[in-house]
Design goal:
This protein is α/β, with parallel strands linked by helices. It has 23 helices and 17 strands. The strands form three sheets. Strands 6, 7, 8, 9, 10, 11 and 12 form a seven-stranded mixed beta sheet that branches. A five-stranded antiparallel beta sheet has the order 2-1-5-4-3, with helices on both faces. A five-stranded parallel beta sheet has the order 14-13-15-16-17, with helices on both faces. A hairpin with a 3-residue loop joins strand 9 (595-605) and strand 10. Helix 2 runs parallel beside helix 5 (135-164) and helix 14 packs parallel to helix 15. It is flat and about 145 Å long.
């Protein structure tokens, strides 16, 4: 019977017929709506056509108004508006949004546009083509447009007549005005309006025909809809009759039979009329018989469940772990024999319906009750605690509790095991741990002592480096100074060449000393960067100027490619130039053919800073990949063999990388064998207020010459305890035309400063009896020493030494070995400020 029900029934066929009728009705209704929309579309197209024709007419009137205003007033703004109207109409300028006929009436003398631009360059003629005009209609529009364009020639001629006269007199204006108001002009205007009028008639006729056709089609669709509605009602009635036949009775009767089955009444028979065995009622009759058999099977299953529960009870009673049930009030309801043994109870009656918390050791009761509340709230909780047995014994238990529902009540089901042996083992481990902590404390104390020793050694290292720097720079100043004096004295060429070699060796030794001291300061975290205005272009140019002779000697090209930065930047220009110079000098040293390029580019920018990338690209031999990783390590080179071709300490790249990292960047290299290498470093420079670039030091010869020319005879006090350094300074300053008094220590300098008025004082730091710092402080206390320029000239070249000099009251700082050009420039600067 069930298979017969699955076959297509009369109700199904009626339902499908009704669905087809409904779909047909919907399709016809859509055609009807479409015909109504065609009427609206025709009217909208008519309105749009009128607007385009109106725009052509209005633009012609606006052009006439603008040209007449220009001829009368001579104001170029009217000519500008005239040209703009033409450009918009011909698509050479974007059309304003909502470009209606009152647009140019709202543009006043302030030339403010009433609406923003639409951003579209579309000529009026293209808009007319897109509007769906017929060929006859478009011909009228094109004729009106052509007549309007022809009229512009007369208007341009009138404007040209006014512009050709200088000055413009009333006669010229009157003549131009007549050109714009005579009968020919008005006839030309009429020739524009005549095609537009004919267009209106054509559009009106086309719209009436379209609307008339759409209305006829809509009337037809209304009749079809009424006819289809009648057929649809007939189909619904046939479907209802077929539904009753398929159900085998009324829907209410079928519902009542289904409800009785739903309530579990499987004994009441369901009568089925003859011939309706394949109906829903027939199916329900068979279903009732099957449900009756299933109910009997369920009753047997209940018996089997009872037997299964008995077996489960046997398993629980023999389980070695404690299994218990606790109700919402915390009362014990069920517990197996293993649990009774854990709490030292002889039977369930001793503890049944008693609070479980009373068996918990007092110090754990609050935590146990909190666990019970969490379980009742739906959480699964694990907890360790101690219990006190009924016979006085204590033991550690670990319980895992979960919520369960029994008779619509939430209870706690817990499985508990005895962990007393594990707790004893943990206590023993804790004792071992305490012993280990004592050993760790002893070791920590030893490490702290070692740390103090290391810090003491670091202080000693810094002191040693400072003393070493001073002791090396002092004789090195004598060497380089004597070389300079000998070279100035006019020695033979052979001796001059040897002196130049000594000078180069001295500068190289100074570079090594500076590199070692810089690296030591960086590693100790004591390196301090200065912050002043940075001109990256000037720094790159300075480096190129320094290395130009070396590049020319090797026939190499040296180029600078510097991107202009958006604003003033702040950083340490000395260290940046040092890094660029290190890269560039290495590139020239290792490059034999081709050239070297210095490149400065901006990588990124945020609100407060700019990230800059500096590259030095060469056409040298290239560096193997396995060597590149160790290039930036201290005292490392690409070739560490004894027979390497090029010298060097291997500190330059390491210091460059450290400096770049201190300035918020990094350094690296990319290289290809046989092609060349590109060494780069990046740095982040803070944005500063725009201002003048840092002053560029004057050329050495100009500083010495200006001293001789403008400051000859001015008195200078030199505080220096080394005789050779005294001799060098006296010779240099004497050649510049200055009068120099010498003090051998700080006390003599203080006495001479009190007796005489000096234009400038050069002060060494380390001197016997009284050092330069104390002497400076004493001189500042003299009546004439408050504003006297005092310049430090010392071999103590650390940054903190420079800071100590400024704190003591000195005005400037010159490090030894003294470069004569630097000495002349500094003395010139402060002598000119003292005037």
């Amino acid at each position: 019977m069930i298979s017969a029900i699955t076959k297509p029934s009369r109700f199904s066929r009626s339902l499908w017929l009704m669905l087809v009728m409904f779909v047909t009705y919907a399709v016809v209704f859509l055609f009807y709506v479409h015909s109504e929309k065609q009427i609206d579309a025709a009217n909208e197209q008519r309105i749009h056509s009128y607007w385009l024709a109106q725009e052509l007419r209005q633009s012609s009137d606006d052009l006439t108004r603008m040209v007449r205003s220009y001829v009368i007033t001579g104001d170029p703004l009217y000519k500008q508006h005239y040209q703009e109207i033409l450009d918009i109409r011909d698509g050479r300028q974007p059309r304003p949004a909502d470009y209606q006929d009152i647009y140019w009436d709202m543009v006043g003398a302030d030339d403010q546009r009433p609406r923003p631009s639409s951003g579209q360059n579309v000529s009026l003629l293209d808009l007319m083509r897109q509007a769906g005009f017929s060929e006859q209609e478009f011909a009228r529009l094109a004729q009106a447009k052509a007549n309007s364009d022809a009229l512009t020639r007369t208007e341009f001629a009138a404007m040209a007549l006014v512009e050709s006269a200088a000055p413009v007199g009333d006669t010229v204006r009157l003549q131009a005005s007549r050109m714009l108001n005579d009968a020919a002009y008005h006839q030309a205007k009429a020739e524009i309006m005549r095609p537009i009028s004919e267009l209106h008639d054509l559009v009106e006729e086309r719209t009436r025909n379209t609307v008339r056709s759409a209305e006829t089609f809509a009337l037809l669709m209304r009749g079809v809809l009424i006819l289809l509605g009648l057929f649809l009602l007939t189909a619904v009635w046939r479907a209802y009759r077929a539904l009753q036949t398929s159900l085998g009775g009324s829907p209410d009767n079928v519902h009542a039979r289904i409800a009785r089955l739903g309530q579990g009444d499987f004994s009441t028979p369901i009568p089925v009329a003859a011939g309706l065995e394949d109906s829903v009622l027939g199916w329900l009759s068979e279903t009732r018989l099957k449900l009756a058999r299933i109910d009997a099977e369920r009753q047997q299953a209940l018996v089997d469940v009872a037997s299964s529960e008995a077996r489960l009870r046997t398993i629980i009673d023999n389980e070695p772990e404690c299994i218990k049930m606790v109700d919402a009030e915390g009362l014990l309801r069920q517990i197996n024999p293993a649990g009774l043994a854990m709490i030292e109870a002889d039977s369930l009656a001793q503890v049944a319906n008693q609070p479980v918390s009373e068996l918990v050791a007092p110090e754990y009761r609050d935590a146990f009750m909190e666990m019970h509340r969490q379980v009742l709230a739906g959480a699964a909780v694990q907890m360790e605690f101690e219990v006190c047995g009924l016979k006085g014994g204590r033991r550690w238990l670990e319980t895992h509790a979960v919520p369960m529902v029994d008779n619509n009540q939430v209870m706690q089901l817990a499985v508990t095991r005895d962990i007393s042996q594990r707790k004893a083992a943990e206590a023993e481990l804790a004792a071992y741990r305490l012993h280990l902590e004592d050993l760790v404390a002893e070791r920590t104390a030893a490490l702290s002592e070692a740390k103090e020793v290391a810090e003491t050694a670091n202080v000693a290292k810094s002191s040693f480096l400072a003393n070493m720097s001073h002791e090396i720079r002092t004789p090195l100043n004598a060497i380089t100074g004597m070389v300079h004096l000998l070279k100035r004295s006019g020695v033979p060429a052979e001796q001059a060449e040897k002196l130049e070699k000594i000078d180069v060796a001295g500068r190289h030794l100074l570079e090594i000393i500076n590199a070692i001291l810089d690296l030591s300061k960086i590693e100790a975290g004591q390196f301090v960067l200065e912050e002043s205005e940075v001109n990256l272009g000037a720094l790159a140019a300075n480096v190129a100027s320094m290395l130009s002779d070396q590049a020319q000697a090797k026939n190499l090209t040296l180029r600078c490619d510097v991107q202009t930065m958006p604003r003033a930047l702040l950083g340490d220009p000395t260290r940046i130039q040092q890094a660029i110079l290190n890269y560039a000098s290495n590139a020239i040293k290792f490059t034999e053919v081709g050239g070297v390029t210095l490149r400065v580019q901006q990588e990124s920018e945020d609100e407060d800073s700019v990230r800059v990338r500096v590259e030095v690209e060469d056409s040298g031999p290239g560096i193997p990949l396995e060597v590149q990783d160790r290039l930036f390590a201290s005292f490392a080179q690409a070739d560490d063999s004894i027979s390497r071709r090029y010298g060097g300490t291997g500190l330059g790249l390491a210091i460059t990388k450290r400096l770049a990292q201190l300035m918020g960047g990094d350094a690296g290299v990319t290289s290809r064998i046989g092609v060349g290498s590109t060494f780069w470093f990046s740095l982040r420079l803070r944005k500063g207020a725009a201002g003048k670039n840092a002053a560029v030091a004057a050329q050495p010869q100009s500083a010495e010459a200006r001293l001789q020319r403008s400051h000859a005879g001015r008195r200078i006090l030199l505080a220096e305890d080394e005789p050779i350094n005294q001799e060098i300074a006296l010779a240099l300053l004497g050649d510049a035309g200055l009068l120099v008094d010498v003090a051998n220590d700080g006390q003599e300098a203080l006495a001479l400063a009190g007796e005489n008025r000096y234009d400038l004082i050069l002060m060494d730091m380390q001197m016997p009896r009284m050092d330069g710092l104390e002497a400076t402080r004493r001189i500042r206390q003299l009546p004439t020493g408050g504003n006297q320029p005092i310049l430090a000239m010392t071999a103590n070249a650390f940054a903190e030494d420079k800071a100590r000099c400024f704190t003591a009251g000195m005005n400037d700082f010159i490090a030894k070995p003294v470069v004569p050009e630097t000495l002349f420039a500094s003395v010139l600067k402060w002598l000119e400020q003292d005037r």
